[in-house]
Amino acid sequence: MGTAVNNPTIRGEKYEMNDERQNAFEKAQPRTTLRDERKTKFVRNDEARAARLRSADTQQARIARNAQQHASWAGAARAGGVRTASGVSLDSVTAKLKSAAEASRQPKSPSLPEPSDATVYAIAQQWMADHPNFYRSAHNGENFKNFLFHQISLGKLTWNYESFSIAHDWLESAGYFEKVPARKRREFATTCSPRTYPKFVSDAERVAEDDCARMEQARRIEQEISRALSIDFATLRREVRGALPQYGREEVR
Q: pTM score > 0.70 for this model?
């Protein structure tokens, strides 16, 4: 048995006999021996680790390789040109993220105070006087107001004369303004009905509406509980059974 294992001709006999049955990919694989097949994964790992250590001839070579790898991480050749307080150089992507994070921590400049109602009214009157062809209808005024409030709340516009012109041009091009009605009997509208801009609801109004809805729901639940406690159990059970779907009534006893 020992002679058969140590004989290279016998060790490779089964692979030579099966060469005709192997495909091109199997033939390209390196040949293995019975001794290699008997090795466990732990033995293979130890041999691979020893081979990697032998590839680095000396300890000085390993130290030089580690120093070169460390220089690629924190050396002067690292791209980005940004160095942290600990002396680590950052790449371009990390440097941009660091700059954005630092900018977000900076105190924001105080916003301009909201203009008074009289100021907004004066701007609107001046714009209306400069645009006499604008059809002053309730529909157009409501769309104008909702658009301005919405865009100003997003920070895209401010209360000034130019914002009124921007709002007018956008609403007119998008079909939110209605035209002047026909004055003659045989004249008719040549365009479709105007669109309606969504109603603007401020954050304070939305919170107030949510609070009212929760209070109303709590009030209804309290009324249902008070009514259920005021009637006898037989009547309550009869009402509950009547409110259940037909397929679920037999499950309630």
A: no
Q: What is the DSSP string of 41-97?
A: HHHHHHHHHHHHHHHS-SHHHHHHHHHHHHHHHHSTTSTT-EE-TTSPEE-HHHHHH
pLDDT digits (tens, 9 = 90+) for 51-89: 877 765 677 777 887 888 777 665 555 555 666 777 676
Q: Are 126 and 163 in contact (CB under 8 A)?
A: no
- Candidates 163, 165, 164, 144; CA nearest to 155 is 163
Dist. CA 39–CA 71, nearest whole Å? 39
Angle, helix 161-173 to helix 138-153, in steps of 10 degrees:
120
* Chain segment 133-190, per-residue pLDDT in tens: 888 888 888 999 999 999 888 888 888 899 999 999 999 888 888 888 766 655 555 5
